[in-house]
Amino acid sequence: MLNSLMLFVGITLMYSTPLVFAALGGVVSERSGVTNIGIEGMMTIGAVTGATVGYYSGSAWVGFFAAGLAGGVIALLHAFASITCKADQTISGIAINLIGPGVALFVCRLLFDGATMSLPVPHKIPKVFGSLNSKAFQNLNVDVTVVIAFVLAVFIWFFLYKTKWGLHIRAVGEHPAAADTMGLNVYKIRYICVLVSGILAGLGGASMTLAIIPQFTPTAISGQGFIALAAVIFGKWTPHGAYAACLLFGAAQALTVTLGGGRFAVPSSILAMLPYLITIMILILFVGKSSAPKASGQPYEKDAR
Amino acid sequence: MMRKGIVLGLTAAMVLSLTACGGGKTETTKAQEETSGGKSSFSVAMITDTGGINDQSFNQSAWEGLTELKNKTGAEVNYIESKQASDFVTNLERLGDSGANLLWGVGYACADAVLEAAGSNPDIQYAIIDNAYENTPSNVTGVMFRAQEPSFLVGYVAGRTTQTGKVGFVGGISSGLIDQFQYGFEAGVKYAAKELGKDIDISVQYAESFSDAAKGKAIAARMYSDGCDVIYHAAGGTGTGVIEAAKEADKWVIGVDRDQAYLAPENVLTSALKLVGKAVQEVSEEAMNGKEIGGQTLTFGLQEDCVGIPEEHGNMAEGVYEDTLKVKDKIKNGELTPPTTKEEYEAFIAK
């Protein structure tokens, strides 16, 4: 029983971690007033960069940082389109979602002899308790990325709500004109937030291909970015809310895994729906109205009245 | 306004450059073909599904089969990669226009496209991997594999290898095709159990996804933690997670479709092979020699040496590989018939 419980917690944490990184990125971007639906594309780029750099450098950490950088670079495209050029942020995001997998496959084929999946990295991101062999705790021996994700969530919460800069970001997302009047550089703040959002999404992608599995496959990132996006809304655009939403989603998946396997006569196709059903139920019953930052999705025109 | 123009232009440029990459690849392969062949009278071409030509799976295997055919017979061979499902028909038409005599669609995803192209080009012969039509047109050949046979063999290996008396099967999305893998495997395990005179438990779980590696890993972690020590997966991308779980738990895992030992040399016990290339080569050769192959579905299995397990068996215990070969012979000469469905499986274990 205790063993099952630990397994349940372990699976929950494993499953939710890539989502947490990406959802935190979504929160930061949205809080500054830029909708980022390109998270999925940025995660894919991060996933391929992480696995590739991790393979060629032999170090998972180098790969992890490279993945963050790559996500950031792609995010700059989004920032340029949606902040400088004031393009429709949804369209720019969709473009990134289309470009991401294309570029990822292209890069992978270029560097891995035409193959659509990379070779496994020699060293993965380590586990929290190292390579411990105690059977009792094996299921709780999660990847270090799980801890990093938690620390980041706490840090971003602190930053957004307890520091001056956090207040600036929120002001820019709620009422950019007022923030501008107070002397804040709206464009600069938004650029930085979108960049950070891309870095986090990239890290999320890499936490998939450097920790959960040790290689990039064309299906490594398939939908996590969109689930993260849902977690942002579900968590009412707050870091702690988004973190909890990702955990909930992970827990629901863990439930389908622990319930499945023929011990109960529930068809697995029904079980597979469970995470989504639970999410909708909780959304309806407990979460209540969630409202986006007021200026989210609107480009800021300096002289518009 | 001008800025919006820039954005539109940028986006368009990026999208275009992607399509251009796809187009460029095809041009090079065509160019290669023109320099290498040209005189041969018979031309075989294939379209890949969206996995691409180097997918380390059946597209790659099929192309290797065609390359082998070219080396052996001098036939002209060619391929076009499909970037998305909507390319299938276009690519088939393009290859048809280029004068191919036999066209392969690789993967059941191409099934409708092959049917459509075959309807509008009755003078070209078509063949498809992994699909059987209910009514096969006279210029189409379906090619299927008896996946239950290698699955039975790896099931036997699993049954002989397990120390805990518990093995697992992780499936992608449940379907008739994956049933062949599941029941073939289960029957193999039970066959070994009967031979050893002990009970072996099989836990089966479907991820309901062929792409969710994290779920595959979670399911496998649960099975290993429940005491399974050998797991067989037929779950595509989800299976990457299964293999990773085996590495972390340091238990056995059995690969599928191709030799997956390179993914985890210490933990991959064996793999259930499906040699698509061999079947492609054989069918193409028959068509080349003027044999009528259309209007039917051909199945390939151990008899045709188109499925099996890899020769490397360093991870198996003494004698297991040799005994597995004996089981293989029994399937070949019809003594054993691995089941493909639940009903057949129940009848099999009742024996």
Shape of chain B: globular
Structural domain tally of chain B: 2
Query: Largest beta sheet of chain B, briefly?
Result: 6 strands, parallel
Number of helices of chain B: 11
When the domains of chain A are counted, the total is: 1
> What's the helical proportion of residues of chain A?
55-70%
The number of helices of chain A is 11
Question: How does CATH name the architecture of chain A?
Answer: Orthogonal Bundle
Instruction: Determine the structural class of chain B based on helices, strands and strand pairing.
Output: alpha/beta
The CATH topology of chain A: ABC transporter involved in vitamin B12 uptake, BtuC
What is the number of strand segments of chain B?
12
Find the CATH topology of the largest domain in chain B: Rossmann fold
Low-confidence blocks of residues of chain A: none
Give, in spatial order, the strands making up the sheet with the most strands of chain B. 2-1-3-4-5-11
Query: Which CATH class of the largest domain in chain B?
Result: Alpha Beta
Subcellular location (chain A): Cell membrane
Organism (chain A): Lacrimispora celerecrescens
Main location (chain A): membrane
GO molecular function (chain A): transmembrane transporter activity
Overview of this protein structure:
The complex is a heterodimer of chains A (305) and B (351). In chain A, 70% of the residues lie in helices and 0% in strands. With 305 residues, chain A is mainly alpha-helical. In chain B, 48% of the residues lie in helices and 18% in strands. In chain B, strand 1, helix 2 and strand 2 form a beta-alpha-beta unit. In chain B, 53% of the residues are buried. The chains are: A mainly alpha (305), B alpha/beta (351).
